[in-house]
Amino acid sequence: MLEKLMRKKNTVADSVVSDRLESLKSRNIPAHVAIIMDGNGRWAKQRNLPRIAGHHEGMKTVRKITRIASNLGVKVLTLYAFSTENWKRPKLEIDFLMKLPGEFLSTYLPELIEQNVKVEMIGNFDMLPDHTKRAIRKAMDETESNTGMTLNFAMNYGSRLELVETTKKIAALVADGSLKIEEIDESLFATHLMTAHLPEPDLLIRTSGEVRLSNFMLWQLAYAEFSFLDVLWPDFDEKCLLDAIEEFQLRKRRFGSV
Ligand SMILES: Cc1cc(N2CCCCCC2)n2ncc(-c3ccc(F)cc3)c2n1
CB 3.0–4.6 Å: which of 38, 158, 172, 253 could bond 208 by disulfide? Predict the structure, then answer.
C-alpha cells in the first residue's frame, strides 16, 4: 500500500514538474546558464563520506541538469568543473577529479549524442593529464556537428588568467602591426576571449550558499543575473533549476517595465 502510494506520489510530482517545465518554456528561457557547482565536499562531510564521494554524486547532477536544461531550450550550459586554483588540493583528490571527465563521458556520451548536445571546453587544456585530454577531445570530436545545447565545461579555467592571456594576444597583434591601438574596444577584446563564440551568460547559479565568483568568467558575467542558492550541488535538482529560471524570468519581466 505504502509502495503504491509512493509510486503515485512520484508520478504526480513528476507530472507537476513536467507541466511547470512546459509553462516555463513558453517564456524567456535564459540562452546561456552558467553554474558554479559548489558544495560537493560539504555534502560528503554531512554523510561522513570522503570528499570524492561528493564529487562523484555531483557528477550525477551534471547528467540530470544537462538533460533538463536541454529540454528547456537553454542554448549554452557552462559548468565550472575545475578551476586553476583547484591544483592546490590534495594530490589524491586531484587525481580523482581528473578521472571524472573520462568516467562521465564513457557513461553518458551516447545519451548526450542522443540529445544532440555539443560538448565544448574552456580553460587551459594542455595542462590536463593525457587521459583527461583524450576523453574530452573524443567527446568534442564526436559531438562537433551536433546542433542542440552546447555543454561547455570550464576545466582548468581561471578568468584572470584568461584576461591576461587575451591582453597578451592583443598586445602581440599591435606589436606586429596587425592591429592599431585605436581599434581596441570592448567588442574587439571579447573576440579574443575563450568564450568569443558563445553568447554571454544570462544567468549565473552558484550552489552551497557561497556568494563569490571565484575567478569565474569575470568579463562575461558583467550583465548576468546572479542566483546564489543554499542547496549543495549533489542535491540540486529539476525543481531548483526551474525555481532559478522562474526567478530569472520575473526579474527580466520587472526590467522590461522600467
Ligand atoms: C574535473 C571535473 C569534476 C567534476 N565534478 C562533478 C560535478 C561537481 C563539481 C566537481 C566534481 N565533473 N563532472 C563532470 C565533469 C566533466 C568535465 C569535462 C567533461 F568533458 C565531461 C565531464 C567533471 N570534471
Answer: 38
Q: 19 pLDDT band (50/70/90 cuts)?
A: confident
User: Strand ranges (DSSP E) for the chain?
Assistant: 32-36, 76-83, 118-122, 150-157, 203-206, 225-228
Q: Give the three cell numbers for residue 234.
A: 549533489
Q: Is the CB of 119 under 6 A from ligand 1?
A: yes
Query: Cβ(157) to ligand 1 under 6 A?
Result: no
**Which of 51, 100, 122, 138, when mutated, tests ligand 1's pocket best, judged by the most ligand atoms within 8 Å of its CB?**
100
Query: If we measure between CA atoms, which residue out of 154, 77, 70 comes closest to residue 113?
Result: 70
Q: Do residues 42 and 209 lie in contact, with contact meaning Cβ atoms separated by under 8 Å?
A: no
Q: Which residues are catalytic?
A: 38, 86
Write the pLDDT tens digit of every residue in 37-76: 999 999 999 999 999 999 999 999 999 999 999 999 999 9
Mean pLDDT of all residues in 129-158:
98
Q: What is the predicted ipTM?
A: 0.99
Going by alpha carbons, the residue nearest to atom 21 of ligand 1 is: 101
The pLDDT of residue 26 is 73
CB 106 within 8 A of CB 59: no
